[in-house]
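User: Can you predict the 3D structure for this chain?
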Amino acid sequence: GKVTIILTTHYMEEAEALSDRIGIMKDGKLLLNNRAVEIMGVNRHHDHPDFGMAFPPTRMKHDIDLICDMGCNSIRGSHYPNSRDFVDMLDERGILFWSEIPIWGGGFSQAALGDEKVVKRGLEMHREMVSNYYNHPSIIIWGLHNEIKSATEEAYAMSKTYYEYVKAAGGNRAVVYASDRPLTDICLEFCDIICINQYCGWYTGGLDAWEPFLDKFCERRKAQGFEDKPIIMSEFGAGAIYGFHDVEMPIWSEEYQAKLLDFCLNLFHEHPAVIGSFIWQFCDIRSNAKWSLLRARSFNNKGLLNEYRHPKLAYYKVKELYSRDWN
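Assistant: Here is the predicted structure, written as structure tokens:
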């Protein structure tokens, strides 16, 4: 059944009682309305080749329609708070949302992570995000940062500062960050769910590297005393050029991307420590100029659809898998 509470938010000038459904962490599970929920999500950039980030509402709705058609129950707003109009639509549709601020590892040196001005500015962004988005019931996760150098003392101090603030101010939500170095990460105490970005089968190794990686990480998680913290696979995937088909399934083919996601989703959602996934990514997006020689078309082509929202084979494979009851 539904769990309903009456809350009073301290962000209103005058106290006002609101009825809201809630999600909580309990016994290593993410509970929504008192029921364990398996996260079936995608990462989505708020970007379109014709409109950039200035999305018209009709295009926002179209993206949400496609995501719902795929069977997703969650979206990660990578890597910044999304339009209030978009989050309003998620509230209306009952889609869960992970909102985070734009601290992404690729742009932050170790020295920058320890810079007092940088840390202070990030804390202010967290204050603004929590204040402006606090009353959106779709938001069940606050994200502290993404892929920073989390094996450093500077990252430890930053994570501690942000975690303590967001846990106190952010309401009854999970607080997380996404780590791309989980085997050396020293910040795992500052999250409610361990979120891992990993690209076996694309950037490193083959598909046979996934199970040894998960086994090794779970051993480390236990040795550090975090065995009760569940795992979300927050980024994984493969690039595919829309329209490139090959029965031998080479990289960049739609067939290989679908094969990799089929393997990963079955592995993750049957793993006892993993409570969900966010596929990288919903659609192809323009890439940073420095990556132009490494990415075909100067795009990040890991989308389940191309930039104009035309589906690849992976879209249909994910729809098949996300239609299962993984709980």
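The CA atoms of residues 273 and 296 lie 35 Å apart. The radius of gyration is 19 Å.
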